[in-house]
Amino acid sequence: MKSLRELGAALAAGETTSVALTEEALTRIAGRDQALNSFITLAHDEAMAEARAADAAITRGEVGPLAGIPMAHKDLFCTTGVKSSAGSRMLDNFVAPHDATVVENLRRARAVMVGKTNMDEFAMGSSNETSFYGAVKNPWNTDCVPGGSSGGSAAAVAARLVPYATGTDTGGSIRQPAALAGITGLKPTYGRVSRYGIVAFASSLDQAGTLTVSAEDAAQVLRAMAGFDKRDSTSVDEPVPDYPALIEESVKGKRAGIPKEFLAEGVTPGVRDAFTRAAEELTKLGCEVEETTLPNLRYSVPVYYVVAPAEASSNLARYDGVRYGHRADNPANLEDLYLRSRGEGFGTEVKRRILIGTFVLSHGYFDAYYLRAQRVRQLIADDFREAFGKYDFLLGPTTPTAAFKIGEKTSDPVAMYLNDIFTIGVNLAGLPAVSVPMGFDGGLPVGLQIIGRAFDEGGILALAHQYQQATDWHRQTPPGVEA
Amino acid sequence: MSDWEPVIGLEIHAQLLTKSKIFSAASTRFGAEPNTNACLVDLGYPGVLPVLNREAVRLAVRFGLAIGAEIAPRSVFARKNYFYPDLPKGYQISQYERPVVKGGKLTIRLDDETEKTVNLTRAHLEEDAGKSLHENFPDATGIDLNRAGVPLLEIVSEPELRSAAEAVAYMKAIHTLVRYIGICDGNMQEGSLRCDANVSIHKPGEPFGTRAELKNLNSFRFVEQAIEYEIERQAEVLESGGTVVQETRLYDPDHHETHSMRAKEEANDYRYFPDPDLLPLEIAPDFVEEVRATLPELPDAKRERFQSGYGLSAYDAAVLTAERELADYYEAVVAALGGEAKLAANWVMGELAAALNREGLVITASRLEARALAGLIRRIVDGTISGKIAKDVFEAMWQGEGDADEVIGKRGLKQISDPDALAKIVDEVIAANPAQLEQYRAGKEKLLGYFVGQVMKATKGKANPAEVNRLLKQKLGG
Fold this sequence. Notes:
The complex is a heterodimer. Chain A contains 16 helices and 11 strands. Chain A is an alpha/beta fold. Helices cover 39% and strands 13% of the residues of chain A. In chain A, strands 4-6-5-10-11-9-7-8 form an 8-stranded mixed β-sheet, with helices on both faces. A 3-stranded mixed β-sheet of chain A has the order 1-3-2, sandwiched between helices. In chain A, helix 2 runs antiparallel to helix 3. Chain A has a single domain (4-256, 390-475), classed as Alpha-Beta Complex (Amidase signature (AS) enzymes). Chain B is of the alpha+beta class. In chain B, the strands form 4 sheets. In chain B, strands 1, 2, 6, 7, 8, 11, 12, 13, 14 and 15 form a 10-stranded mixed β-sheet that branches. In chain B, strands 5-4-16 form a 3-stranded antiparallel β-sheet, with no helix packed on it. Chain B has a two-stranded antiparallel sheet with strand order 3-17. Chain B folds into 3 domains: 5-290, no CATH class; 299-411, no CATH class; 419-476, Arc Repressor Mutant, subunit A (Orthogonal Bundle). Chain B has 16 helices and 17 strands. The longest helix of chain B is centred in the middle third of the chain and has 20 residues, at 220-239. Chain B is elongated, with a radius of gyration of 30 Å. In chain B, strand 14 and strand 15 (257-263) form a beta hairpin. Chain A binds chain B through residues 77-78, 84, 86, 91, 94, 96-98, 100, 195-200, 202-204, 230-234, 310-311, 313-314, 316-318, 320, 322-324, 334, 338, 358, 361-363, 366, 370, and chain B through 40, 43-52, 79, 81, 83, 85, 88-91, 141, 143, 269, 271-273, 276-279.
């Protein structure tokens, strides 16, 4: 598949049309997605209408880097007129009356949305197995998970069904599936991209980002998505830089630290070898690479599994069957309406997290769990701040292992949670990070995580881009998928 | 039973006078069709986010400054989690551990003119919930979310009130203050000012008793009745050997009693935690000073000035300063008159207040402008009309017959003060009442009033009373 830059050039030159590209995408999805299950909803008619409008605009000379190019949104983003399910039975009937700011921004850029991608229910999961719409298969091996929660977006881009897709990342939900599906996944700084209109999971951690083939494409998409939004009080009023220009800036002389904690826990030899080679490659690019430490990082999983469920338990209270979403039939009374609507609407993992969150916020437990977790979260953020006093980047494998088998970890939530052990700290500290393909372990792709200072998306994308100029891991495609 | 001392603290919810809601752009207008003033944020749709209305913050700061409280440089919005159909998000955004206003005090005046200073604990910003509608929905409940997200300032007093009367005086003082500083319209029927009361009783010197929280006190009368009932109820419980249960009780104004809603121990665990959708509220000292500069003269200061500046009694000053608009009107009358502060006070509190009251009008809707009333009073002062005739002139002016001079001219009400003209009338009256004259001269001097009445009758009330008195005494004495 061509890069976004190439697609944009072809559209501008009249070598192809948005209608043609969109039809091709829909055809690919029709042919391949039964096996992958990466989409929940296809928006065929809406996409074709958008494509025709984009073509008309391009004819008028209104070209933009994303105009007329098909893409997909994770089903956590609210889209007017097209169902927004959050992967849950609870919202299986929900068509939003509003667009998320990200959706609006990309609409303005004349991106053509072909559909909504599958995901773990309410973004709670690391394997895409918690979706009400069934598991997504990893295009590299359909017995394996694609990671999660943005598993549908990752699989769709890995299988080259669409050139790019949006995702959200609360504890690794973009980077982990990007790593397991062999693509590039960017989680921006907390506050860089508006959360307005994104179904909330854990408000202090959620951040929207990109799943793309390359870092160069991520730079294009982020520039269109990002920006201050007065509808999101936690979005930050920082100008959006020209990321596509920034990624060309040399990384020579930049300093990169490898926290030893990223290579300690359960990292397979294959992942370790791939990472060692990646670090060597970065040295060749002129980076000074050395080992460092983030001493409190080991607490990130327990901290996350207090903070995220706490916020989720409150964020998901609105799904009560009263105004929208799933509503139990013939409720006997108010309590019955609540109990059955929520009991029927939510899946097991979501219920588990609501229970955990409710517990840690309860009277008598709040101090011991929630408050203590917030204090440790601060320590973790302090560790990062200290490290970034010395380094421009922090590096490590995105995940300890390559993709695992579907069903392998569903009965052991803690084993599942540990899959995000290297990604969660970044969310707790609100930092930007990108995962890029760095090789294979047992025939399955693995990812390199590059973490940057707050609002240095340009820096981490530059390093990722230049690494991708020197390597071709990101150009590898799953069996049967055309490059 | 008289040795029980009540301990009362009030939580007053004042609806802040903002155009839009505290976390959304929807209108706060009262009385709209159900659910027409509710946007996606108020409806708690997926993915929508609260954005703080800075105007609500400004009004909260205004209140804090008016009671001499500390304005927190950093306060935090928290989520109070509970399920209820009129609470769309499943949580209410409020302030919990870190309110925007801390401390402060308010002087209240009781009917016996004694003063008491009441300390406030805090005042915090929060959003209102919607309303459940039970009428017109057989076997169901209707939900109106127009009120959901309306900004409230919850004003919490220390438990320093010691009687129902003190509680009412405190609530009235808050009612006056919030309208003075323009943060709340004080309309209790529409629920703009609502009150919950925490009531317990104890023997002086002993620890406080267990308290009950009284809800639904939406008038001064209900505050008084509910608290009085509750004090009696608790005293009866304790004296019969029982214990007061900590619970929420609902006041039933139809039966003048309170009844248990739910035991507080069984109540929701609200699981408060800081709202991650909202940054901590930072208030810069510059902003506080900006707000302070716009504060009007406060009720206490105005009352003192009315006493010392206009020589009014404490009572008159209190009545005239109870509402800022009334005080403004009064001052406009005095200014137009260039004095006569006491006479002006009598007219504003007397005829004018009666007329307004009769027609259910507020002072700003008065049919008589301050200047017009001053014009009338001026004619009393300069002797053109008597105070009695002035009442008729006032009535005519109220009915729109023109200004004071027009009414006096048109109706020929000018006072007769000319001694010669009056002497003639007096002579006629004496001549027409020989029997009364005889009695008067025999010592029945209280018949003077009879003669005055006859003169007034003959002059249709226009005779100058002082002059009539003088002449009658002179002539009756023979």
